[in-house]
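Exercise: predict the structure of this protein bound to NDP.
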Amino acid sequence: MREFDALWIEADKDSGAPLPAKWNKITVDQLSPGDVTVRVTHTTINYKDGLALAGNPAVTRKFPMVPGIDVVGEVLISESDRFKPGDQVILNGYGLGEVHTGAYAQIARLKSEWLLHRPPEISAPRAAAIGTAGYTAMLCVMALERHGITPEHGQIAVTGSSGGVGSVAISLLSKLGYETVAFTGRMEEADFLKSLGATEVLNRSELGGEGKPLGQERWAGGVDVAGSHTLVNLISQTKYGGAVAACGLAQGMDIPGNVMPFILRSVALLGVDSVLVPMPLREQAYRRLVQDLDLAKLDSLSETVKLADVPERAAKILKGQVRGRTIVEVD
Ligand code: NDP
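Solution:
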């Protein structure tokens, strides 16, 4: 049976905790079961992938594991009626790289009910550039829209804006006509963020500490990747009837706040998950990405690396040293 390269995480025999990922030669029978076998042509590196490669037990929960939460590739073998060899497919989340072997390998064995046909308008490298982070940004924007927030309501604050979710969220919101305020710890990226469409760029330290229970009303809405004080301050500064879409925990997983913005201003906190999103909403998100994501901006916020570069780049993403999105060429 043909061997191929994979990043491989095993558990420590004594503690059961994940060991650091290492390169391994594996065969397809070492992959989790699935009815579609895919040649992985591209993948990406999300914050969560960084956590997995750093040995975070909250991400890697089954062993041995091939990490990597996003697959872009071509079907090699299919036992499903929905897919045939040669089909171009995408998979984001669904426990990939957590409980089902994932993307950092040349071949992946996947479940057909998790797979999307890649829209022809989005090339394979661009689908990797979008990845979980970009598709989550779209889900956040759709959550704000469902709440009835339109560009006329005012500015949208976006945190972690130099990162993956944040940079794609700014690009999407600006194309949709929203004014966006980009919060970042990297003020040197202000010109880059303005090139994506940010109206204003502010230092994230403004939101990072303990704030007032009810701040001055500033935003119609927010997209937050940080959690903790950042999320609480964003909520407390949201205008009457506004909403904050919360998807991340880059600052922390706590919510050290109070109920005043909810009960005095009808502010809504909209939780956004990408992993277990039902297929119809995923398909809708990708239709919206085709329609509303400026591909020139996507290219400008993406950088391409090789599969061999994944461990080094994953360490950088945890230190906040990666700008925008990463395309990983697997072939
Ligand atoms: P990135 O690492 O690409 O971006 C995160 C950004 O957050 C950094 O670039 C930085 O931006 C900012 N940041 C880092 N530390 C802090 C801090 N202490 N306080 C405030 N901001 C900080 O990650 P992703 O965009 O891939 O993911 C962002 C978050 O969203 C992660 O927590 C991730 O786990 C979560 N996520 C959740 C998903 C879901 O399904 N709910 C799906 C995808 C992501 P800057 O330098 O501009 O300040």
